[in-house]
Design brief:
This protein is 53% helix and 19% strand. Among the domains are: 239 residues, P-loop containing nucleotide triphosphate hydrolases (Rossmann fold, 3-Layer(aba) Sandwich); 114 residues. The strands form four sheets. Strands 2-1-4-5-6-7 form a six-stranded antiparallel sheet. It has a six-stranded mixed sheet with strand order 8-12-13-3-14-15, sandwiched between helices. Helix 8 packs antiparallel against helix 10. It is α+β, with helices and mostly antiparallel strands.
Length: 577
């Protein structure tokens, strides 16, 4: 669960260190004090999208860190798979946002990416924001709720693998199903391209080698002049002796001297070796001069070959390797076009097999969804009845459609809010308060199959008040019995059920706004609930009402048998079925 959140330089929060407890944590405060900023900060450290606009005015960077303890086995397994470890069972995520747009992220002090924060965050916290109610207005998302409760991830993954293979075969068939004129045109083009490349016979490295040879031939006069100078220096001419003659004389002299002075034998050998080396170089220079003058038409041949390779490069690839790869692919494509009928028959057979396999898998999914859908319907209706919507009737319409990425089902929730009315789409029936309670009912049902340890509800009380708000508070308290719940609310009836009540306030100093987050004691809770009930002018009547709310929340317990909250001063809420 989330035990600590540290925020620095985000919006109106300069610095804040917030401790959370197990059970139900409630955040209240005046509008604009920074309640939503706390949720935005949690979103940021969980790797969700954030912007430089979050950085406090005048600051160069913002920083958020979140500490989690009592990690679930699934979370620990996921961390290990990602290459991280929990130190003493503690996990710390942090993210720094800079004015330049750069993110510095860490998982337990080790560098991480934003994507890594988001990946592990899915195992830690489930956030229900104000806009999530709109999901209920979108029938395309209703199937997601059923799948979440069905726990059909493995089955859905297997189906999608088969479906992707089916789509690939169908796309390949589509590419074959061009008109005959287009197929023949492609055959002619490929035949020409293959012939052109095969006639050219490009060899790997040929262009570079020919370029070097052309450079030598274009400068042969300069090369010949330099080589001639080197030959004269080595071999001499009619006027002077060359280095070879002089080195030969030196070698002979030292050889003769070594007969009388044995210490000169090494020098004689080295001079002899040097003479042989220079003689070899002289022969190489002579051969090089012969090569330059050997074929006067060679330069023209090279120019023609380079021109051909240059044109082929522009058509088939920037290197000989790419040209040869293009040739290989062209041959395969030509074979496929020439063997069109046979290929199409094989693909048709494969498509039929894949379609049947995909349909069978989708049907298995559909049957599971239908079964789970009935359980889901009954559970949500029961939860909504507790949330003071006893006459709501939920219908889950499941129609078969063409195969798609989710199977063969189109699922839509229909509701009837009054007896005698036919169920209609949620978007045409539910009010804002009804949507809020319906979403809470759904989240309650789904939480039983959810492995995430912390649930966050951002203003779940939208559009509700009075006794309905009281029921929402009781339901949140019930949810918090086996997992941590954080809730931002404006309703005193909901805040009264908090196990940890956090008050967010703001003040202006030196024309700057500063936000403070503090955990309230019993007296502080009375004052805050009285403020919510009565406004800025807190009266004794408002305080007395606040105490009644707190006492009522403390004395209740959930009854599995009756499905209601009953008064029992010695009991605490117990988990519902």
């Amino acid at each position: 669960m989330l035990t600590n959140l540290y925020i620095e330089n985000i919006a109106v929060i300069e610095k804040s260190n917030i401790d959370f407890t197990g059970g139900l944590n409630v955040l209240t405060g005046e509008t604009g004090a920074g309640k939503s900023i706390v949720i935005d900060s949690i979103n940021a450290v969980l790797g969700h999208r954030s912007s430089r606009g979050m950085i406090r005015s005048g600051a160069d960077a913002a920083f958020v860190s979140a500490t989690f303890e009592e990690l679930s086995p699934l979370t620990l397994k996921k961390l290990s798979a990602m290459g991280y470890e929990a130190e003493d069972g503690t996990l710390i995520l942090s993210r720094e946002l800079t004015a330049s747009g750069k993110n510095n992220c860490r998982i337990n002090s080790r560098p991480a990416t934003v994507a890594a924060l988001r990946e592990i965050g899915e195992y830690l916290i489930n956030i229900h924001g104000q806009n999530d109610n709109l999901e209920l207005m979108n029938p395309a998302l209703h199937i997601v709720y059923i799948d979440a409760l069905a726990d059909d991830a493995a089955l859905l993954s297997a189906y999608r693998k088969t479906y992707r293979e089916l789509r690939a075969v169908e796309e390949e068939l589509g590419s074959l199903d061009t008109d005959e004129a287009e197929r023949l045109r492609k055959i002619d083009l490929l035949t020409f391209q293959i012939a052109e490349l095969e006639d050219a016979e490009p060899e790997v490295g040929e262009y570079d080698a020919l370029t070097a040879e052309r450079n030598a031939l274009q400068n042969r006069e300069k090369i010949a002049k330099e080589l001639m100078g080197a030959r004269i220096a080595l071999d001499g001419d009619d006027e002077v002796d060359g280095a070879l003659r002089m080195l030969d004389d030196a070698s002979s002299a030292v050889m003769n001297a070594s007969r009388y002075l044995s210490s000169l034998e090494g020098s004689a050998d080295r001079l002899s070796s040097a003479l042989y080396e220079l003689q070899e170089i002289s022969r190489e220079l002579e051969s090089a001069m012969d090569d330059i003058d050997a074929d006067p038409g060679r330069l023209e041949e090279i120019e023609e070959r380079l021109d051909l390779l240059y044109r082929l490069r522009h058509k088939y690839g920037e290197s000989e390797e790419e040209m040869l790869a293009y040739l290989d692919n062209a041959k395969k494509e030509l074979n496929a076009l020439n063997d069109y009928a046979n290929n199409r028959a094989q693909l048709e057979m494969r498509r039929e097999k894949l379609y049947q396999a995909a349909y069978d898998s989708a049907k298995e999914l559909s049957d599971l969804r239908r079964k789970v859908g009935e359980e889901f319907r009954a559970s949500v209706e029961r939860e909504m009845a507790f949330l003071l919507m006893p006459n709501v009737r939920l219908e889950i319409r499941q129609d078969e459609v063409e195969l798609n990425s989710r199977g063969i089902d189109r699922i839509e929730f229909l509701i009837s809010t009054n007896p005698g009315e036919d169920p209609k789409p949620v978007s045409k029936i539910a009010s804002g308060g009804e949507l809020s309670r319906m979403m809470l009912a759904i989240k309650t049902v789904l939480s039983r199959a959810d492995f995430v340890q912390t649930l966050i509800f951002d203003e779940i009380d939208t559009g509700i008040s009075g006794s309905a708000a009281d029921r929402v508070g009781r339901k949140l308290r019930q949810l918090s019995l086996d997992r941590q719940v954080l809730c931002v609310t404006h309703q005193a009836q909901i805040a009264a059920f908090a196990m940890n009540h956090l008050f967010i306030s703001k003040e202006v100093r030196d024309d700057r706004t500063f936000t403070r987050v503090q955990s309230l004691d019993e007296d502080g809770r009375v004052e805050e609930l009285a403020r919510i009930v009565g406004g800025e002018q807190i009266t004794d009547s408002a305080r007395n009402h606040a105490r009644e709310l707190l006492n009522s929340a403390k004395s209740g317990r959930w009854s599995v048998d009756s499905g209601q909250w009953s008064v029992d001063s010695e009991s605490q809420p117990a988990t519902s079925d």
